[in-house]
Amino acid sequence: xxxxxxxxxxxxxxxxxxxxxxxxxxxxxxxxxxxxxxxxxxxxxxxxxxxxxxxxxxxxxxxxxxxxxxxxxxxxxxxxxxxxxxxxxxxxxxxxxxxxxxxxxxxxxxxxxxxxxxxxxxxxxxxxxxxxxxxxxxxxxxxxxxxxxxxxxxxxxxxxxxxxxxxxxxxxxxxxxxxxxxxxxxxxxxxxxxxxxxxxxxxxxxxxxxxxxxxxxxxxxxxxxxxxxxxxxxxxxxxxxxxxxxxxxxxxxxxxxxxxxx
Amino acid sequence: xxxxxxxxxxxxxxxxxxxxxxxxxxxxxxxxxxxxxxxxxxxxxxxxxxxxxxxxxxxxxxxxxxxxxxxxxxxxxxxxxxxxxxxxxxxxxxxxxxxxxxxxxxxxxxxxxxxxxxxxxxxxxxxxxxxxxxxxxxxxxxxxxxxxxxxxxxxxxxxxxxxxxxxxxxxxxxxxxxxxxxxxxxxxxxxxxxxxxxxxxxxxxxxxxxxxxxxxxxxxxxxxxxxxxxxxxxxxxxxxxxxxxxxxxxxxxxxxxxxxxxxxxxxxxxxxxxxxxxxxxxxxxxxxxxxxxxxxxxxxxxxxxxxxxxxxxxxxxxxxxxxxxxxxxxxxxxxxxxxxxxxxxxxxxxxxxxxxx
Lengths: 262, 357
Ligand SMILES: Nc1ncnc2c1ncn2[C@@H]1O[C@H](COP(=O)(O)OP(=O)(O)OP(=O)(O)O)[C@@H](O)[C@H]1O
Ligand SMILES: [Mg+2]
Known about the structure:
The complex is a heterodimer of chains A (about 260) and B (about 350).
Chain A (H helix, E strand, L loop, with lengths): L1 H33 L9 H8 L1 H35 L4 H13 L2 H11 L4 H4 L2 H25 L3 H10 L4 H9 L4 H17 L2 H5 L5 H11 L1 H32 L7
Chain B lengths: L6 E10 L2 E11 L4 E5 L6 H9 L6 E6 L2 E2 L10 E4 L11 H11 L4 H14 L15 H14 L4 E5 L7 H18 L2 E6 L2 H7 L2 E6 L2 E6 L1 H6 L4 H6 L4 E7 L4 E4 L5 E3 L10 E6 L4 E5 L9 E11 L3 E8 L2 E8 H4 L7 E6 L5 E4 L2
The complex binds adenosine-5'-triphosphate and magnesium ion.
The site of adenosine-5'-triphosphate has 12 residues of chain B, from strand 2 and helix 1.
């Protein structure tokens, strides 16, 4: 009984501790970004950032890259994961291993390796497509895992056989039957990918692209106040993205909780 | 609703690693016929069905519809309706969308699709459930929708793989009759997989009994029940007493256990051939022992157990022949208490003799 009573107290303690751990630096950054003089506050630094053309350029560039990466990742990975589940379950451990390689291989090694590999094709090294390709690799652990979990939750074999029995080829099965069930997984994979692309610094700076992360880094080194404002801004973006995931997936889930096997 | 097709399965074989899941299966299913594949777990029923559906490729052998081979036709072009053991409705689609999906793939107009879906829903008496999702349906309803989805496409052959096994007993009985009624009405050629012998006997035109990847016997339910071709079939379908015996002369056998003679009438079996006698519980009659004696065909026995089955009661009897099961009308069982001594006689016409393997 005593232990039970103490439990909520300790939960509250840890909750507040964790909250403080995250919120204090955030608050400090926010406070710093709002300082316009010794004792005056305002949105001046935010104005500076927003009116900096580089801010807009780099952000749009990174967003475009993020969308390209998401599209490419999904087009590559959805059929792959589907195929592994249906036809090559024995390859799953191998693919799982490959999918975590980006955690093991440092981005710098990846970038240098790619530069070496494509030395003969300079236009490719300087193209944004290369960057998107590299980001597909960087996002692989998340894309693969999200899709794998999504497909594991389905009785994929029975659904695919049922679809075939009513005349659907496998691409049609994937599109009409499987994909609608993967909404949550696809959204999760997409937003994680966007977060990675927006935050990736090493590869883009090494390949001399002015992405959003490179811009943040640049501001951070040169203008402390603007950097704080920028940090808060990108934090805001992330939250909006998270909220979007939440709203989009919740709307769906409440309408159709998956109850395949009773 | 559908033009029925003949289905032929010829010399089908399929190996999974070491196990021969299907080990040379030949079957012919006539247009409009309802044939059940009956067998214990692992006997290869599902594998046969999946090969017919095109989900699995056989190592050798052929599947023919109306005489022409469909071996090279991919599953999604075979036009076979299938109902699965596991619930298989597409979870993001409503009942109606599930049924219309296949029609949509065939490029049917919206109007036509709606008509077909209505017709199919009516067939399974679920017209009011068109807008529900799978999770809003009971297990039995889901299987009925799955049946409607298969039938809406007017398949040449209907395949069902234990569609009732996940349902509770009452729903199972009801839906089984419903499936049969719909099948008869549409006259659709049907291959039905089950491990439940009672279900197979009740629903089928013919039954193919399978074990270890082979068809042991094909016949009408009555043939399978009363003239099993092997002791496996006899024991798997219904309950049977199995007694080792030998031929003693040109009209009688003698049981190994007691030496008791049983006159069966004239037969052409070689004297001293080792045989197995199979006799159903209803082929044994019981009379209370009252010391009449003398009749050599009567065997003394003691009642060890009663199992009430409704109209009949099954008695477990201990006799010199061994332990036997006999069915008596429940009304008579009252006068046959546990432990009492009785006389049993074997109905010679109910005994089925098979060579001992
Ligand atoms: N995909 C597979 N891989 C390996 N072995 C398999 C596969 N499918 C079936 N088998 C094996 O083949 C044999 C026949 O299986 P099958 O599913 O056809 O049996 P079944 O008669 O349908 O049994 P049940 O009544 O349990 O459904 C079994 O020994 C099974 O283990
Ligand atoms: Mg099976």
